[in-house]
UniProtKB/TrEMBL annotation:
One BP annotation, GO: vesicle fusion
Keyword Repeat: no
Annotated organism of origin: Clupea harengus (Atlantic herring)
Family: Belongs to the syntaxin family.
The protein's name: Syntaxin-12
Amino acid sequence: MSYGRADSYRSQPRDFNNLIQTCSTNIQKITQNTGQMKSILYQLGTRQDTPELQERLQQVQHYTNQLAKETNRHLKDLGSLPPPHSPSEQRQQKIQKDRLMNDFSAALNNFQVVQRRAAEKERESVARVRAGTHLTEEDGLRTPDEQLVTFESNEERSQLQTQADELPITEEDLEDIRERETNIKQLESDIMDVNQIFKDLAVMIHDQGDMIDSIEANVESAETHVDRGAEQLQRAAYYQRKARKRKCILVIILVLVLTILGIILWQASK
């Protein structure tokens, strides 16, 4: 059964649309797997609880954790892509990334809540096993023979032997405790991974905010330059019209002067 394991990260194309689609798909898988984990947790500690069920929980949890880390890497790739030239496309991509980060953050929150609940369930199970075998935390990973040696040094071997006859400590009990404690360590490690992803998300959101502020500033600057250019064109057109009027007046004056001179010369010739 597939739980959405992240095993093809390197083969994924690095273009914007593909990254957006891959992240969206991963987030959906994280949400679905979180729902599966919740369903399994309800069965733990009941008659339906089996080693197979516990193993399934561990698999779903760990695969989902890998999916979260892969999605985090994809989001970083999105942030490293060069922005498009068009301001409208830049805004559109920013909206898509914002929506994606919000969805991812919500899915991570739900996943981490279930992770912590799974860790609590494992600790409760270990406590029940220990209580049933009279094992302490220090005794949990020691063999029965090693425990006998400890009590022998305290001259209590006879008392221990009586207890062992009544409630025998089996290798199966010890193996169960070891396995559950290993699961707890894995859960705690995965929870730390999710904490780091939250930190990375906060940095990406902050950086993206700075980037869009810079884009808006550039757009406003461009608009200002456009306005100034339009104003200068209007002034140039005004001065051009004024210059034409002056040329026309000068031409008319010149024509009048030439006409008057022509008349004067014509009269003088008579």
